[in-house]
Amino acid sequence: MAKRDNITVLEPCSLPNFVETPFVKDITERAMAYVAAGFPIHFRGGSGTGKTTLAMHVAAMIGRPVVMIHGDEEFSTSDLVGGEYGYRSRKVVDNFIHTVLKTEEDMQKRWVDNRLTIACKNGFTLIYDEFTRSRPEANNILLSVLQERMLDLPVASHHDGNYLSVHPDFTSIFTSNPEEYAGVHRSQDALRDRM
Length: 195
Prior knowledge:
Rossmann fold; four-stranded parallel beta sheet; two-stranded antiparallel sheet
């Protein structure tokens, strides 16, 4: 585990007690074929079936750092992309000539990238665990990331322009429970079409 831009980045490794049955091996091989073709992966099934463990196993096979997000009802787009958090102030006091005091103050809002932006920028693997627990409108930002490989950033982000080109090594793995589970939202058709 490492910290990068105040975000915890995981270095995945296969668990020593991970049991790879022929069925699991088949799923893993199909997932890796999707990754090689540039598609995201979506593991869907009941709770306790090993979706997250399988996602971590596939991420270890991909071999790049992992950023993990856990879906939540209160999630918003800024929780994925980032936002303005706090201020940066600067004050210059010039008293070179002791009889003259010159001061200059400056204050700017401070933009902080969040997990999706960090993963897209650096080519990390994003594991979005239980993504259907987040409201569908929070996940709209993923549409352009998965289809056009562009991340639409707010003007306030202070990046070079409003769009961030997604790193070619960026990979995404999603997990979800069936829609009839409590606390699960139906994902958008447009998002499912990209998986």
